[in-house]
Amino acid sequence: MTAAKELVKLYEQAQQKLVDIITRKASGGSPAIYERRILKQVTAELKKLKQATPELVRQLVLSGYKTGLESAVEDILKAGVKTPPAYSMFSRVNTAQINLLVQNTVNDLVKAVNVVGRRMEDEIRQAGVRAAAMKAATGGTVRDMQKDLKTRLLGLDLKQPDGRIGVRYKNGKVVSIDTYTKMVARTTPAEAQNKAKIVQAQDWGYDLVRCTSHSPTCEVCAQYQDRVYALTREAANGKYKGPSGKPLHFPYLYDTALVHGYETIHPNCRHRFSILPAWAYTPTELAAMSRKSMQPFRDTRSDAERKAYAAEQTYNRRRNADLREWRKYRAALPDETPTTFSGFRSMKRHKSKRYQELKKSLRKVAGGKTQ
Question: Residue ranges per domain, the chain?
Answer without folding.
Answer: 1-205, 206-307, 325-371
